[in-house]
Amino acid sequence: MKKSLLSLGLASVLSVVSVASFADSAVMNDVTTGIEAKTGKEIYQTVCISCHMAEGKGAKGAGQFPAFANNMRLMAAEYPAYIVLYGQKGMPGFGNYLDDDQIAAIVNYIRTSFGNDFKPDFTPEQVAKMRKPDADYGTLD
């Protein structure tokens, strides 16, 4: 029994370390240069997938990462755009690392993927209006 618990504990630690390492490397190599991915799918695969998973179903474990799959909260595009810009709870803001085109692209991608059927009509101009002068978007450090 002790051996099983020890093995289970070790497996848990290794999985957390593995996910944390993947999440850290998945974001970007040099945070000072921003994120190079341009399409919503590329941004998702580069930045979001490590927490929200490949099928957009989110994850629970050391933290809770919300699902995008069949998520009615995505109906209003401003909601995910605000969270991408400024962050929320454990998710950092990406306002310093993604430009307005990239934020519109990722918002439209998650709103039209994972079983969601919302219009991909969120624009970079709408993102620009959401940015606050001298906003603190946080860092990924």
UniProtKB/TrEMBL annotation:
Q: Which Pfam families match?
A: Cytochrome_CBB3
Record-annotated Cytochrome c domain positions: 35-114
Alphabetically list the UniProt keywords.
Electron transport, Heme, Iron, Metal-binding, Signal, Transport
> What is the protein's given name?
Cytochrome c domain-containing protein
| Signal sequence, start to end | 1-23
Q: What is the lineage of its organism?
A: Bacteria, Pseudomonadati, Pseudomonadota, Betaproteobacteria, Burkholderiales
UniProt cross-references to InterPro entries, sorted A to Z:
Cyt_c-like_dom (IPR009056), Cyt_c-like_dom_sf (IPR036909), Cyt_C_IC (IPR008168), Cytochrome_c-type_DH (IPR051459)
Which PROSITE patterns does this chain map to?
CYTC (PS51007)
